[in-house]
């Protein structure tokens, strides 16, 4: 038994569902039901402006809204570089007032993206964001096959969700009834259910099957041609998915 004055702290890289189901985690919750779980994941694109504003405020900086948006655009998913940029701006301007022009003179493009964010942008219909992420992934030398496999996995989930109970026509919209039950059955993460709901509302069966065909065409090109044309095809694919 631990002494009441002892406070154990467990630090994990990322708390996953697998970790939550492990015996040590279950036992810890039973032993100390009042335990506090602090989630320290990187802010997503919607949360990042508030993070920047709060960080600037903690440094005593007054920052314009358009300057906040510029920092978010330039340092998305790279909090260390973003923190260092704010510290540099604090040193450069004694009056601690950050306008768009002042921030623009200092920032550099240091955003870091993952294939999952590219797929999420496609599912949510954000074509410009999908293209921007794709450019970043190309600059980071991410293999196109990894992108295709990541997108293919979510399309297979989408196909499973949209299986009609009765014969359907190609131009029928995908069914939106009982989505929650389908998400639960396929164990779709809560934070991705809205993305699937959004793309389901945009698609018909014809469009979904066409996307699978286009995805297969791009994959054949990636495996046979080994040229930069594959990135142009991926960009075109991103745009078509978002329409």
TrEMBL record:
| Annotated keywords | DNA replication, DNA-directed DNA polymerase, Nucleotidyltransferase, Transferase
List the InterPro entries hit by this protein, alphabetically. DNA_pol3_clamp-load_cplx_C (IPR008921), DNA_pol3_delt_C (IPR032780), DNA_polIII_delta (IPR005790), P-loop_NTPase (IPR027417)
Query: What biological processes does GO assign it?
Result: DNA-templated DNA replication
An example GO CC term for this entry is: DNA polymerase III complex
- Which reaction is catalysed here? DNA(n) + a 2'-deoxyribonucleoside 5'-triphosphate = DNA(n+1) + diphosphate
This entry's Gene Ontology molecular function terms read: DNA binding; DNA-directed DNA polymerase activity
Membrane-spanning regions, if any?
A: none
The enzyme's E.C. designation: 2.7.7.7
Domain of life, per UniProt, equals Bacteria
Q: Where is the DNA polymerase III subunit delta C-terminal domain?
A: 115-242
Q: Which Pfam families match?
A: DNA_pol3_delt_C
What Gene3D superfamilies does the database record attribute to this sequence? Answer: 1.10.8.60, 1.20.272.10
Record NCBIfam families: holA
Matching PANTHER family: DNA POLYMERASE III SUBUNIT DELTA
Q: In which family does this protein belong, per the annotation? A: Belongs to the DNA polymerase HolA subunit family.
- Protein name according to UniProt: DNA polymerase III subunit delta
Coding gene? holA_1
């Amino acid at each position: 038994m631990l002494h009441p004055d002892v406070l154990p702290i467990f630090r994990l890289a990322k708390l996953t569902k697998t970790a939550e189901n492990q015996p040590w985690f279950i036992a810890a919750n039973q032993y100390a039901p009042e335990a506090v779980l602090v989630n320290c994941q990187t802010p997503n694109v919607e949360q990042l402006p508030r993070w920047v504003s709060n960080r600037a405020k903690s440094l005593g900086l007054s920052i314009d809204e358009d300057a906040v948006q510029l920092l978010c655009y330039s340092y998305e998913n790279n909090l260390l570089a973003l923190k260092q940029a704010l510290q540099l701006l604090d040193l450069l301007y004694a009056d601690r007032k950050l306008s768009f022009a002042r921030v623009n003179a200092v920032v550099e493009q240091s955003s870091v993206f993952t294939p999952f964010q590219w797929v999420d942008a496609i599912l949510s219909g954000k074509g410009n964001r999908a293209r921007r992420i794709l450019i970043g992934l190309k600059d980071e030398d991410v293999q196109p096959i990894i992108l295709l496999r990541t997108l293919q996995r979510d399309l297979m989930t989408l196909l499973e969700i949209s299986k009609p109970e009765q014969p359907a026509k190609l131009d029928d919209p995908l069914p939106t009834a009982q989505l929650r039950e389908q998400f639960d059955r396929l164990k779709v993460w809560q934070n991705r259910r809205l993305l699937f709901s959004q793309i389901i509302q945009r698609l018909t069966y014809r469009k979904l099957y066409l996307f699978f065909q286009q995805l297969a065409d791009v994959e054949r090109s990636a495996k046979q041609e080994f040229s930069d044309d594959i990135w142009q095809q991926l960009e075109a694919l991103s745009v078509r998915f978002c329409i």
